[in-house]
Specification:
The chain is mainly α and 337 residues long. The protein has eleven helices and two strands; from the N terminus they run ααααααβααααβα. Helix content is 69%, strand content 1%. The chain has a two-stranded antiparallel ribbon. The longest helix has 30 residues.
């Protein structure tokens, strides 16, 4: 049995006023714990994308026909709603798991010694993106799976994945000014690669909005554009991203860049190859659901690899002074926001 400590009235009041500060005063996680907490948010950001794709691919997008309740009379799915109701409601419940992962990252970052304000702010940024995407997900249901809102829902999930990756990376860095590891030309090439990859993912949402798997068996509105034409554009952009990746790898070799950026460029190239194979196979096999789901998972891996390439081109020393701790009982600005 674990002995439960007795709390004074003052301690209870302090915990109520600023629970993060109360926990931070009594718990000091290791850097490994903070990094694991940040990684859990990254993993759940990918899981929520994949399960959201499963909702669409199984035709369960309107399994819960309203929001925030599942039906007008029930907060949860009922037995009469069948398989589709279970799938849609299950995906909604995973949002709470995602919130728990992001909350753990915030608490771990706030409790680390010395306290790093930048990590706490990144954690709160994830929280607000999750809240915004949850509301947008409700709007998607209320407007009957309008493809433009579905595309925005996916892109906001990609933004969440970006912030989560940045948080995970920053745990292992200092708070000093970033120092570039490559020249300006290589850095500009990397930013061009990042922009092309972002455009590739955005066009991919248009392909989805114009093609099959609308998300429900009812008559769901589709984007009025030729699907084969937009798919060809998506494939052309994929080849542009592959070409830029190869060019970046050769440029990094030519300037004798550190091993880290070269490995990240190689990893991105390999992920792009796997994603390309899946994309072409699903196109020529009439987009079977399992391959579309794998392609959505692959899009997350591609973006993770792109972000890792971008972040590998600089380093942050750990010689910046630690941020002063807020006084006991006073809410910190990030949490108060």
């Amino acid at each position: 049995m674990v002995r439960v400590p007795k709390l004074t009235r003052a301690e209870v009041a302090q915990a109520a006023r600023n629970p993060l500060l109360y926990i931070a005063d009594r718990w000091t996680p290791t850097e490994r714990t903070v990094r694991r907490a940040a990684l859990s948010a990254v993993i759940m950001s990918v899981v929520i994308v994949v399960t959201g794709g499963a909702v669409r691919l199984t035709g369960s997008g309107l399994g819960c026909p309203t929001w925030p309740k599942c039906t007008e009379d029930s907060l949860t799915a009922t037995s009469e709603m069948g398989f589709h109701g279970v799938v849609e409601f299950g995906n909604r419940m995973l949002t709470y798991v995602l919130c728990a992962a992001v909350g753990w990252a915030i608490i771990a970052a706030r409790s680390a010694k010395p306290w790093r304000r930048s990590l706490t702010r990144l954690g709160w940024a994830q929280f607000w993106v999750v809240m915004g995407n949850a509301v947008l997900g409700g709007i998607v249901v209320l407007v009957g799976l309008n493809p433009y809102t579905v595309a925005a829902h996916f892109l906001l999930s990609t933004a969440l994945l970006t912030v989560a990756m940045l948080t995970w990376q920053r745990v292992g860095e200092g708070d000093g000014e970033p120092r570039p590891l490559v020249g300006r030309a290589v850095s500009q090439l990397t930013w061009l690669l990042t922009a092309a990859a972002g455009l590739l993912i955005a066009v991919g949402t248009v392909v989805t909005g114009a093609g099959r798997h609308a998300g429900d068996s009812s008559d769901v509105h589709r984007i009025p554009i030729d699907w084969k034409m937009i798919t060809q554009l998506h494939a052309d952009l994929a080849w542009v991203v592959v070409a830029l990746t190869v060019a970046l790898w050769f440029a990094l070799k030519a300037v004798d860049a550190p091993a880290g950026p070269r490995r990240r460029a190689r990893d991105l190239f390999l992920v792009l190859l796997a994603q390309g194979v899946i994309g072409y196979v699903q196109y020529f096999t009439d987009t079977p659901e399992i391959l579309v789901g794998l392609h959505m998972f692959g899009s997350c891996l591609v973006w993770i690899a792109v972000v890792r390439v971008l972040l590998s081109l600089r380093e942050r020393p750990a010689d910046a002074p630690a941020a002063p701790r807020p006084a006991a009982g006073r809410p910190e600005p990030a949490a108060a926001g």
